[in-house]
Amino acid sequence: MRKKAEGQSTANNHSARVAAACRLIERAESAPPLGRLAAIAGLSPYHFHRVFKSFTGMTPREYAAAHRAKRMRSALRSGKSVTEAVMSAGYGSGSRFYEKSTEHLGMTPTQFRNGGDQATIRFAIGQCSLGAILVAQSDKGICAILMGDDADELARDLQERFPQATLVGGDRKFERLVAQVVGFVEAPRMGLDLPLDIRGTAFQQRVWKALQKIPAGTTASYAEIAKRIGSTSSTRAVAGACAANAIAVAIPCHRVVRTDGGLSGYRWGVERKRALLESEAAE
DNA sequence: GGTTCTCTGCCGC
DNA sequence: GCGGCAGAGAACC
Prior knowledge:
By secondary structure, the protein is α/β, with parallel strands linked by helices.
């Protein structure tokens, strides 16, 4: 009994320290260095870092970055100019923010302010051994690879994923790109040497990054991915992020299976998942 | 391009 | 539970 109470109080202590660090990060003009956060929490930088991550699922640096991006977004939404928003979010200089803006907002600040992504997305639909395949590209790179049984369904899916975008059918030059992607889907081991335009929340991005590290021909469980991104208890959220993935095969969510080896689900049909895994294992 | 800070796996207490 | 080192990596100037 006594032991339990002690364990409880340690946990409470930690959550209070982590919460205090979060508030500090939120209030600070620029991200406080790790050493200062740790000193305030009364822990060594090493240990504090681990405690923080185990509670929040992200490192203090990531937390600060996510919070800045959030401030940036709300400042832009409230109608401030891009420059004002950059400053009020605590980015030291405009130029520094611009370098990373695509990462934070998924688009340039001006595009964001103009009501989301109205950029043009070009797409084309082709056929591969797994059925119909849609490849879409923004000016940043491939933003969607979708698979399905019929072309209309895929086009609707694309429109739903990018409701603000202007979708245009691809020209002949674009067909070559589709052919390249189809070739990649048939033989994923070759790799896809094209830039990707990956859009999602910070958490989704972390999951997708982890997925890209799973080598072809192997699999990982949802729990393993959760562990790799340092968020052991987020197994279900990992599954959610996999399901939200818009870039099939290039972000290999098909390589994530249940802990017992069962295939679990696949956004584009379990049969396609099975086929992909079998062909990768055979290569 | 060098420096400084961050992050993580591993080990010791 | 906590601290610390080593080494890789990212951010910064």
